[in-house]
Amino acid sequence: MSAKTATCPDCGGRLLPIEYGYPGPSMMDTYDRGEIALGGCVVTDRDPDLQCYGCQQRFFSDELRRHSRSTSS
After folding, report:
1. Is residue 8 in a domain?
2. Is there a contact between 54 and 5 (Cβ–Cβ < 8 Å)?
3. Domain assignment present for 5
4. Spatial distance between the Cα atoms of 21 and 40, rounded to a whole number of angstroms
5. 3-state secondary structure of 39
């Protein structure tokens, strides 16, 4: 599942990849264009990797893949 084709299961909004780390100028430009969400500077071993542009809900792409396979059967 690609973030470019995925939609939020809650509101149907566009899902953006979440970028972690201190945002430099390039990352901020990408954020300002609405292409990524910012995840913060503190990174753990299990952080969500997608965020809805509409409702701001965060998701794990592997869980969305499992959910979409189970509902499409």
Report:
1. no
2. no
3. no
4. 6
5. strand
In a domain, 68, yes or no: yes
Positive or negative CA dihedral for 45, 31, 34, 53?
positive
Q: What is the pLDDT of residues 5-23, one digit of tens each?
A: 589 999 999 999 999 999 9
C-alpha 59/C-alpha 53 separation (Å) is 12
Closest CA to 34 of 22, 47, 52: 52
**One-letter amino acid identity for 17?**
P
- Count of domains forming the chain: 1
3-state secondary structure of 56: coil
Residues 6+ apart with CB under 8 A from 46: none
On whether residue 40 sits in a domain, the answer given is yes
Identify the residue with better confidence: 72 or 23.
Answer: 23
How many residues are there in the chain? 73
Full domain range(s) for residue 45: 15-72
